[in-house]
TrEMBL record, chain A:
Keyword match Translocase: no
Residue span, FecR protein domain: 148-232
Origin organism lineage: Bacteria, Pseudomonadati, Bacteroidota, Cytophagia, Cytophagales
PANTHER family, alphabetized: PERIPLASMIC SIGNAL SENSOR AND SIGMA FACTOR ACTIVATOR FECR-RELATED, PROTEIN FECR
Superkingdom of origin organism: Bacteria
Protein name listed in UniProt: FecR family protein
Segments traversing the membrane: 96-115
UniProtKB/TrEMBL annotation, chain B:
Species in which this protein is naturally found: Dyadobacter pollutisoli
GO molecular function: DNA binding; sigma factor activity
Pfam families: Sigma70_r4_2
Lineage, broadest ranks: Bacteria, Pseudomonadati, Bacteroidota, Cytophagia, Cytophagales
Residue spans crossing the bilayer: 182-200
Family the entry assigns: Belongs to the sigma-70 factor family. ECF subfamily.
Coiled coil regions, renumbered to chain: none
GO biological process, one term: DNA-templated transcription initiation
Name of this protein: Sigma-70 family RNA polymerase sigma factor
Keyword Transcription regulation annotated: yes
Keyword line: Membrane, Sigma factor, Transcription, Transcription regulation, Transmembrane, Transmembrane helix
Ranges for domain RNA polymerase sigma factor 70 region 4 type: 125-170
Length: 358, 203
């Protein structure tokens, strides 16, 4: 490759020194840019473009008109002034009563919240939820000695584990949302229908999808949702009911683990990430003397998992490696051993650390 | 932080409204331009800035002195915007199945620029290219070039590590360069021939 191919505009734009130099308006004489241009005149066009860009960028017009600016500032100042007027100094004698009242209210409030929490804990079991729902339900129980696949009226499929059960509305096809209640474990392949979101209720957790496949498992007081393809949103039942849609959005190879007792959702990678559907061909060949950054990039694409590493440290790492069917973490193991690095899983991301290659 | 900003911050913490207003005058516009990178709704954005400053005013006595006022305000605004965004109805929050976040679609720059030929002249060339990037990429380029922040300072505002800033920046720049070349190195030729064609047909 032509070595000057490296000097694109972004090479200059990424350089702190370059940007600073353009801003300073100092002459080019005596800077390293002069030497660089001198060494090869071919890079001049890209260089000049980068210089013009930095100047143009600095002079971009603001989004805010002067009128709107002063209006915005005035609005804040008015609110601040109003706020101060409300605070009339209280007589000292009243102040103590005021404090006592405040503490009392606080304690009652606190007590009420704790009670509510306590009562709520078991409000979302399968039995309670199916009783409470207004629509007529169909219930299916897998009492066979193994997994059993069932098909819902809309064509969606659920692979039910032994002893698990689901309920769904008799009018699933005409309801505005497709509601399914699950007790136990199930692998869902949901038929896409954007107008009718598919909702799965499992203990205190609501899983919302449009069309996708994912697995829900409940063990003891834990519910986990692991995504195979598509996108999935999960909510805590309580927030869902109160219309506070604090969702957690999951993409393939991510899972959410919900603990009923703490009413908390945490997010992590699935134990054995699989190659995304449609991305199988990315990994199916040998990398020969390839930069490790390229391999990480392919892995990111193939698995949809973010890999974080310092590009500069590993810039001189070139490795030869065949990547095939082995599990994701085995691949990482092999790569990391080759470049003498370590990996950690942090939330959804993989972080690579090491000293680099020389 | 400049001496002037330090003085202002101190006076503001002691309850000076004049100092507070001065801070608003210095930072309102840069904050608006920054926030605009991920909150395109002008009214919502000025609401967010309003609420943020009001809460800063209320908490003034408890705020710790910051090393860099601008960075502090930027990252506070960022949090504020995301907090209000979360409260939006959830139907909007779940993107369709088809948009794949891993692959930014490289779409029809030509058709778009042909359609927008008239408005293009008003828009600056940079804003034009910026619109093709994701919000996060726009945000980091804005901080880097419009606000002239260093990698370390950007890391501070976005609350991520410096290597991540470096990665994000280089990806954004690469994309920016590609679009820039399509728009301003190749397209003018294309448009030129396009016009020639029209003229030759008229003959």
């Amino acid at each position: 490759m032509d070595k000057y191919n490296n000097y694109h505009i972004d090479f200059f734009l990424a350089d702190d020194g370059f940007v600073e130099w353009v801003h300073s308006g100092k002459p080019i004489e005596g800077t390293r840019w002069e030497a660089l241009l001198h060494s090869d005149p071919n890079i001049r066009p890209e260089f000049e473009q980068a210089r013009a860009l930095v100047m143009e960028w600095k002079g971009l017009p603001s989004q805010l008109s002067d009128q709107k600016l002063s209006h915005g500032i005035q609005r804040i100042m008015t609110s601040v002034n109003e706020r101060d007027e409300v605070r009339v100094p209280l007589h000292d004698a009243y102040r103590i009563w005021f404090k006592i009242a405040a503490i009392l209210i606080l304690m009652i409030g606190l007590g009420w919240t704790v009670m509510r929490q306590f009562n709520d804990k078991n409000a979302y079991t399968y039995e309670k939820l199916t009783q409470r729902t207004e629509s007529e339900l169909v219930e299916i129980l897998n009492d066979l000695n193994g997994d059993h696949e069932i098909t819902l009226p809309d064509g969606s499929k659920i692979m039910l584990s032994k002893g698990s059960r689901v309920s769904y509305s008799k009018h699933l096809l005409t309801d505005s949302t497709r509601n399914v209640f699950l007790k136990g474990d199930g692998f869902f392949s949901v038929v896409k229908d954007e107008k009718h979101p598919f909702l799965v209720y499992t203990d205190g957790l609501v899983t919302r999808v449009v069309g996708t496949s994912f697995k829900i498992a409940s063990i003891g007081s834990e519910v986990s949702v692991a995504v195979r393809s598509g996108k999935v949103a999960v909510y805590r039942m309580r927030e869902f009911e109160n219309n506070r849609k604090d969702d957690i959005l999951l993409t393939p190879n991510q899972q959410a683990v919900f603990t009923t007792e703490q009413n908390q959702i945490s997010r992590k990678l699935v134990e054995d990430p699989l190659v995304l559907r449609g991305q199988e061909q990315i990994l199916n060949f040998d990398y020969v003397e390839s930069p490790v950054s390229k391999i990480f990039e392919s892995l990111e694409k193939a698995y949809g998992i973010k890999i974080i590493y310092d590009a500069e440290t590993f810039s001189s790492c070139n490795i030869t490696i065949p990547l095939r069917e082995e599990p994701f973490f085995t691949k990482l193991d092999i790569i990391c051993k080759t470049i003498q690095a370590k990996y950690n899983v942090s939330g959804n991301d993989v972080i690579i650390s090491g000293k680099g290659c020389n | 932080m400049t001496e002037q900003e330090k003085e202002l911050w101190k006076a503001f913490q002691n309850g000076s409204k004049d100092a507070f207003e001065e801070i608003l005058r210095i930072f309102y516009r840069p904050m608006f331009d920054y926030g605009f990178k991920f909150q395109k709704d002008h009214d919502q954005l000025s609401d967010d800035i309003h609420d943020l400053f009001l809460s800063i005013w209320d908490r003034r006595a408890f705020l710790t002195p910051t090393a860099n006022l601008k960075l502090y305000l930027f990252s506070a605004l960022r949090n504020q915007i995301f907090r209000t965004k979360k409260r939006l109805p959830f139907v909007q929050e779940l993107p369709g199945e088809d948009d794949d976040h891993l692959f930014q679609e490289t779409d029809y720059a030509e058709t778009k620029i042909l359609r927008n030929e008239a408005t293009d002249e008003q828009l600056s060339r940079i804003s034009c290219v910026m619109l093709k990037l994701t919000k996060r990429q726009q945000e980091i380029l804005h901080l880097r070039f419009f606000e002239n922040l260093s990698n370390a300072q950007i890391a501070d505002v976005l609350n991520i590590s410096e290597p991540s800033v470096y990665n994000l920046l280089s990806i954004s720049l690469k994309l920016f360069r590609n679009y820039w070349n399509v728009y301003f190195n190749i397209l003018p030729f294309f448009l030129f021939f396009h016009k020639l064609l029209i003229i030759s047909k008229l003959w």
